[in-house]
Amino acid sequence: MKAMILAAGRGARMRPLSDVIPKPLLAVHGTPLLDRLISQLARAGFTDIVINVAHLGEKIRAHLGTGAQLSVTVSYSDEGPAGLETGGGIRRALPLLGCDPFLVVNGDIYTDYDFARLPASLAGLAHLVLVDNPEHHPEGDFGLCDGQVGDNAPRLTFAGIGVYRAALFADATADRFPLAPLLHRMSARGLISGEHYHGLWTDVGTPERLAALNAGPR
Question: Between the CA of residue 33 and those of 89, 138, 181, what are the distances in Å?
Answer without folding.
Answer: 20, 24, 27
